[in-house]
Amino acid sequence: MKRLLVTADDVGLHPGMTAGALAAHDGGLVTAVAVSPNGRSFDAAVPALRERPALDVGAHLTLVGEAPLSPPAEVRSLVGRDGRLLAAWPVFARRWLLGRIRPDETERELRRQIERLLAAGL
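The structure corresponding to this sequence follows.
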């Protein structure tokens, strides 16, 4: 038997996105979500995700547009002057192609995001 998997992305980025994804799951449409651990509504999303054991939860690791989980001084190549992750993928890609993104800093930030998901029980 074939089974359709429908994943809602960007859970934890914004309260409205999280609410929409959870409503779609509760209505039987969404079977999985991709959660952004550095999104501004991540903490509020965690209890709601835990209340839905049938919902598959995956990671949406984020290297642009949000605040880093690492202190900005530890991931200088990933952040702008404002201390936030670079604003958009084209900016990140340009830095990467010019050799200005440090792999060790990228690994550090991604590890922190994974650790936050695991610490939340997701």
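The two ends are 28 Å apart (CA to CA).
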